[in-house]
Please model this.
Amino acid sequence: MGRNNERNIKKHNDKLHKEQDKAKKAAMARKEKLKQITKQFNANKQDETTN
Model:
């Protein structure tokens, strides 16, 4: 039972695309989190320099 028929090819591709979407979402979430952390760090740093 390989990926030699349409049904198995579709199953395989669906699984593959689901994993790729999951990885892409995780990368975007990390990027957003990093942006927030950077923004907060810069705000704190700016507050320290003004005091």
Summary: Helices lie at 6-50.
